[in-house]
Write a structure and sequence with these properties.
Elements: H1 4-12, H2 17-24, H3 28-36, H4 43-53, H5 57-60, H6 68-77, E1 78-82, H7 90-98, E2 103-107, H8 112-118, H9 120-129, E3 133-139, H10 144-152, H11 158-169, E4 178-183, E5 189-194, E6 197-202, E7 214-218, H12 225-239, E8 241-242
Parallel strand pairs: 2-3, 3-4
Antiparallel strand pairs: 1-7, 2-5, 4-8, 5-6, 6-7
Helix pairs in contact: 2-3
């Protein structure tokens, strides 16, 4: 079987088999076998290839997902699990905000709990002043998608809450390093990234986000979940509409 993912990633970066081989320290024939025969390189080499091409190693070699080493690494990414977002203590959110570092990313429809209880506007201003970067995705209140989500969850005020969130945060959009975009995607998961820690809040049909589980994830070398959700955020971001 041909490894089309690896070939495509190399082509997008104008990398030949010889160039990639030289950069990761293997023979060009080995790279050719990875592509044409779907051979799986050794762990250290896989890591170097994945880092160079900007993907998790399981993207190129999905057979690794069932191995003990990957299962163990994935388990180590999961720091904590809560039965619902509402059951996550406020001190946890505050601690994550306090140690955000230089990168904050949020994908929600509204997340008014962060604005009301944790002063998200001030957090963005402080992050900007420290030279950090923030990307915030809010739901487009004019989208039929938000109207339908409100109907499904018996929460008709979902569009209004999204509009309120934008009203509170739109000033932060003018801050250096801060950008807010609107999206109208069906929100399968709400994401909150604080540096190398992420809170993933998967959604279930008919159940509000606050009543759905939350996974606290840590970025671990060779891990799958953190990068999986990072790529999900990037896809919505690319399709989002900048706020005027």
């Amino acid at each position: 079987m041909v490894n089309h993912r690896l070939r495509s990633a190399m082509a997008s970066r104008d990398l030949t088999t010889a160039t990639l081989a030289g950069r990761v320290g293997v023979d060009p024939k080995s790279v050719e076998r990875w592509i044409t025969q779907d051979r799986v390189p050794r762990a250290g080499t896989r890591m170097r290839v994945a880092n160079m091409l900007g993907y998790d190693e399981t993207y190129f070699w999905p057979s690794l997902l069932g191995t003990k080493s990957v299962v163990g690494t994935t388990s180590s990414e999961v720091v904590q699990i809560w039965a619902s977002r509402a059951s996550v203590p406020g001190d946890v959110w505050q601690a994550l905000i306090a140690k955000t570092g230089q990168r904050l990313e949020i994908l929600v429809y509204a997340a008014m709990f962060l604005i009301d209880s944790h002063r998200l506007g001030d957090v963005l201003a402080d992050l900007s002043a420290r030279g950090g970067e923030a990307r915030v995705l809010l739901g487009d209140s004019s989208s039929p998608m938000l109207v339908q989500r409100g109907i499904d969850e018996n929460l008709p005020h979902v569009p209004a809450r999204a509009a309120s969130a934008l009203e509170y945060l739109h000033v932060a959009n003018d801050l250096p390093g801060v950008e807010i975009r609107l999206h109208d995607t069906p929100l399968y998961v709400s994401l909150y990234r604080f540096g190398d820690t992420m809170m993933a809040n998967p959604h279930t049909h008919g159940v509000p986000a606050k009543d759905s589980p939350v996974l606290q994830l840590a970025k671990v070398p060779g891990g799958h979940l953190f990068d999986y959700y990072t790529r999900a955020f990037d896809r919505v971001w690319d399709a989002g509409r900048p706020v005027a």
